[in-house]
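Re: weekly structure request thread

Next one in the queue (180 aa):
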Amino acid sequence: MYILKLCQGDLSTNIGLFHTIEEGRKFISQLTGYKYEVEEGFEYEYFDSTTVPDYVELKYNGHIVPLTTYMFTGDGKVDIYWNQIVDLSTPGNGMIEGSTRVDAYSIPNNELKDYIEKREYNYRCVKEYLESKGHDVERAYFGSEDGEAILFTDPDEWHFLTHMDPEFVESEDIIKDLDI
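Done, posted below.
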């Protein structure tokens, strides 16, 4: 099941729950200005808040959902997100479907444990290597838009080395790949 969430800046509004994203897209595509785009393999859904009338009713499966331009914060794009949720009251078959956010990236739940273990292993390798060369090492930018990163001193000045992103995690020889 998926929750339809509309986000603009710091404001987010949950609209409804759908069994499939396709059902939800059928619902939200009634809204004038709805856009669905795929760029470099990533799906983006949004609409311009200025295209929403003062008052509009979206109808779906016997439900009427009222929307208004006044529920948004002025001009600009309203992003559409689909948050997958699992009904934990029904019996399961192991790992839940979906993904988990790690920094700015969504990692499939069935790969999450390996991803985190490899990420932390690569961080320890980089940290130990840099410390063996006399550098101080620090993790920084936790919670930032681009995700956590590694900084080091040389000799008294801090330098950015790399974000701990999927490319960092996928490296088989992180020291060589970072050319440090």
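The two ends are 45 Å apart (CA to CA). The chain has a mean pLDDT of 91.
Next request, please.
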